Amino acid sequence: MRGKEKTSILLLDDEPIVSKRLKPSLEKRGYEVEAFTDGFSALQRIKERKFDIVVTDLKMEGIDGMHFLTEVKKKFPETEVIVITGFATMQTAKESFQKGVFDFLAKPFKIKEITEVIKRAENRQRERASK
Amino acid sequence: MNLLRRIRHKFSRRHVEEYSFVGIFKRFQEIVEMNNRLLGLIARANDKLGGDYIFDKQYIRSLCAEISDLVQKLIFNLDSIAPKKYRALYDVFNRIQEDIDELLAGRIVPRDIELILPYEKISRDIVEAVGSKNANLAEIKSVLGFLIPRGFAITTASFEAFLKYNQLDTAINELISKWRDDKLSTGETAREIQQMIGAGIIPSDLEKAIRNVLDRLPDIECFAVRSSALGEDGHRSFAGQYKSILNVPADKIPEAYKRVLASTYSEKAMEYRKSIGFTEWEVAMAVGCQEMVDVKASGVLYTMDPNAPGQDIMLISATWGLGVPVVSGEAPTDHFVVSRKPPYKIKEVDLVHKETEVLAEKNGGTSLRSLSREKSDQVCLSNKNIKQIAEAGIVIEKFFKRPQDIEFGINKQGQLVILQARPLAIKSIESPDASDLAMISTKYPVIFRDKGAIAQKGVALGTVFIVKDETDLQHFPSGAILVSRFASPILAKVLVRASGLITEVGSPTGHLATIAREYRVPAIMGAEGATKILKDGQEITLDAEENIVYQGIVKELQQYSLKQEAIEETYEYRLLRRVLRKIEPLNLVDPMDKHFTPEACKTMHDIIRFVHEKAVNELIEFKYYKHRDQGTASGKLKWNIPLDMVIIDIGGGLSTPPHNKVILPEQIVSIPMQSVLEGLARPGAWNNDPMSVDLGSFMSSMTRTFSTQLASPRYVGQNLAVISRNYSNISLRLGYHFTMVDAYISENINDNYAYFRFFGGVTDEMRRSRRAKLLGKALAHFDFRTEIHGDLVVARIKKFPEPMMRKRLYIIGVLIGFSRQLDVRMASDHSISEYLEKFKLVMEDDNERERENQHIVT
Predict the structure, then answer these.
(1) Do B48 and A108 touch (CB under 8 A)?
(2) So what's the pLDDT on residue B693?
(3) By CB count within 10 A, which of B1, B225, B280, B691 is most buried?
(4) What is the rounded average pLDDT of the residues B625-654?
């Protein structure tokens, strides 16, 4: 692990099953993961600390994922945001990319698919840091 | 024209339009299109159960919405082709849809569950009907082979029936709502509901069902009546929440049943459910009625020490007679500490003075009896018993993937009888630190990785046992990791006791892999050189999640795997499986069967199948028999291959009109149709005409084993092709296979496409999926974009120039010809590549000949 710090990931999805399955798989691959099922707590957490990567759903009961990711990008522009959603329309995709979202993953997805996206996000951060 | 005539004229014109062939054919094409989409949707949904995907409830809801929307449209389209003829489909659809809605709302559908099920008929697939305790116990016998008491389950359908009969369902819901809104205390709610249940009357059909099952067990006088609630399984243990009543005389079962039902709503149970977030809608109580075993001694085994899960020990508490004191903790009992590893050394014995034992009374109930002085200080389990119990514990734990809390008895013959098994709550298994997990592959020596393929996911720790021949199997120690050169089905007999499996040869689709999945034994197959690299007796950790074999015992992985909730135990997984059971199974296979009716449709797939079959029939009926439309021509194909095909020409597909409704192959000028027929006619593709050396011999060897029954005209169904000069839509039912070809070929390259779908068939699942793989590979070899899901093959190709498109349709023809027989021959995975190579060779041989012909022409 070359002595460097672990990549931190914040996970936000209102359906507990998503974090329940995703968190351990990501931890097993060496990531530090905090999972949330409500937007309010996630927003609170964002005020306290920075995450390298944020994985969030868009359409959630009582939470606006778009609002959440906007806040994240406002506070930490270098945090890469990955959107996972079951309702991928062109409109939402366009809007999220405008907000600086790194990538868009349609639910359901394979664990391998999301870890690949996360790896790419890490690479981009590394590239940016070395510039 | 007077008004009346004008109206009549207008009306008849509309009539003609509605019933014109073009209109009907458009509906038919829509049906075909939706049919394809539906089968794809269902197949992809099934893939989600494999464990690789992360999906949520939202996915399941939108999947169901999409499927029912399409099925509804299918029915609508069939109704417009054949007005009012199949209206019953709407009712059938609504019924299935209601069931699905109930499931999505979190309710279990008891509609098709019997009131009573004997243990022999129970498996984990019907856990919703019998509760987890019953399901587990039944599989402990049927899969793992241990002794259990004889008996039966009173299912959740009985629970629902009881509530309904006594009009308690709404009353309970009202009370629960009040309780949830804090308008009623838990105590009051529980008391009221329990009183209502206690005052309820057992419906007469349930009483009769209980009497019937008891008649079949005439020698059993008394039963243990145990709760078996839904959701008790998995990582939630409802230990001690619900009631169990011992030694109930057979004729008192209905009363005992009510008492156990009432315990569903004990204050304790309600509070507990609330605390773990278990919804009240998921509550359904099944009950198990088990023969009272005449025991010498009984006890409880914990397969792990709940306070020190890291230690490799098991705990046993036991006493003389019935196990009541062990469970209640009211009297001192003997304790044993046993190693978790074979040969299960007894590490500690704590022998106590036992004054009394609980015994079953002849006429029901239990009593406390004094023990003789000699017996009081005697150890209640023999060493042999203890080892038996320990070994059983490990096997059961391995199977259910959780530490277990097992109630057992030793019968008068000294045999071990498993009375109950449920997950053991271990709070202190600490999830290993994430970095520990990520660092494992640097911390522990990796023996090999990514060799072979994962056949069953999971983590196994144990010593290597290499099997060279069958005689080795006699010495196989329980809990060892089975390593073998071949994936021979002989290994199945010890696999149930193995903690892991590694083979050098074999694949995840083989027979042994299926057995490994059935027993939930983590397995890697096709790991070349494994028997040479690994040594007998070597301790290893098999990580069949990441496909790595480590030297030594990797504790972190063990703890991780025990803590992990298996995907099978998540609510979403159960929900998807439940709704798929209303969608996926195909019950209507034979259209000749008198039960091929709307009323017989039990699933969405049945409806899909029915609509497609009838749409084809209606088209044939309309065009061929009634000959209603003058713009098109139709007839039956007369050919040496008994296709029994009706051809409808919608424009330029035939060179001359059919004579007496007979069409000869040479009349067909439809480009795609011509090519498909040429393929079918290729020597060897359909019959065993001894012509072509390669495919001919290969085909004839296949046709020899091809059952004559399948070859009879009855099973070669009525087939249909709708053609024009450039277009063909071919629906074929050959044997039990359904094939569909939809293609357009013209000079305009951008318009060209071909769609091929193959589905269904007799023979076992394994062979069917092999056949699907072969077809998929063969088509992919010829540039088709193919998708395979189980037995469904979909292949597409587009925008190829005309000669190449013709060739592709020809290939489809050849493939259709032999695929109807292929599955009978696909006895091993090896045969896939073997036949594929032969097929490619034959096709190249064709190419050669083509080139030669061209040469002669030029």
Answers:
(1) yes
(2) 31
(3) B225
(4) 80
- What is the rounded end-to-end Cα distance, in angstroms, of chain B? 65
Q: In chain A, which residues have their Cβ closer than 8 Å to the Cβ of B565?
A: 20
Domain for residue A45, yes or no?
Answer: yes
Chain B CB contacts of A1 below 8 Å? 435, 438-439, 442
- Whether the predicted pLDDT of B152 surpasses 90: yes
Count: domains in chain A? 1
Cite the DSSP H helix spans in chain A. Answer: 16-28, 39-48, 65-75, 90-98, 111-130
Determine the pLDDT at residue B824: 52
Angle at B540 between CA B534 and CA B542, to 5 degrees: 100
User: Smallest Cβ distance to B54: which of A18, A27, A28?
Assistant: A18
CATH of B434-569, one of 3.20.20.70, 3.50.30.10, 3.30.70.20, 3.40.120.10: 3.50.30.10
Classified by CATH at the fold level, domain B116-291 comes out as: Dna Ligase; domain 1 (3.30.1490)
DSSP state of B147: B
Nearest to B546 by CA among A120, A106, A30: A30
From chain A, the residues in CB contact with B560 under 8 A are 24, 28
More confident residue, B857 or B488: B488
Q: What is the pLDDT of residue B702?
A: 35
Residue A3 lies in a domain: no
The count of CB pairs under 8 A between chains A and B is: 70
Mutate to test the interface with B, among A11, A23, A26, A27 (most CBs of B within 10 A): A27
Q: Is A86 on the interface with B (CB under 8 A)?
A: yes
Q: What gap in Å lies between CA B568 and CA B402, rounded to an integer?
A: 13
Q: How confident is the model at residue B112 (pLDDT cuts 50, 70, 90)?
A: low
| DSSP letters spanning B625-650 | IS---TTSEEEEE--SS---EEEEEE
Tokens of B579: 């709704």
CATH fold of B295-423 reads: D-amino Acid Aminotransferase; Chain A, domain 1 (3.30.470)
Mean pLDDT of B652-658: 89
Which member of A17, A24, A111 has the closest CB to residue B56?
Answer: A17
**Could you tell me if A16 and A37 are in contact, meaning their C-beta atoms sit under 8 angstroms apart?**
yes
Question: What 3-state DSSP class applies to B265?
Answer: coil
**Which residues 6+ apart lie within 8 Å of A66 measured at CB?**
A58, A92, A95, A96, A99
Band (pLDDT 50/70/90 cuts) for residue B1 is: very low
Q: Is some CB atom of chain B closer than 8 A to the CB atom of A1?
A: yes
Secondary structure, 3-state, B713-759 = HHHECCEEEEEECCEEEEEEEECCEEEEEEEECCCCHHHCEEEEEEE
Residue A109: domain span: 8-130
Between chains, do B560 and A24 touch, taking CB under 8 Å as contact?
Answer: yes
Q: B430 CB near a chain A CB, below 8 Å? A: no
- CB-nearest to B54 from A28, A29, A109 is A109
Q: Note the pTM of the prediction, 2 decimals.
A: 0.68
C-beta separation of B675 from B809 below 8 A: yes
SS3 B355: coil
Which residues of chain A neighbour B62 with C-beta distances below 8 Å? Answer: 86
Note whether B502 and B534 are within 8 A (CB). yes
Distance from CA of B47 to the nearest CA of A (A): 11
CB B74 within 8 A of CB B608: yes
Touching A: B residues 46-65, CB under 8 Å: 48, 52-59, 62
Q: How far apart are CA B70 and CA B87, in angstroms?
A: 17
Mean per-residue pLDDT, B213-231: 91
Q: Is A3 helix (H, G, I), strand (E, B) or coil?
A: coil
Structure tokens at B349: 């014995």
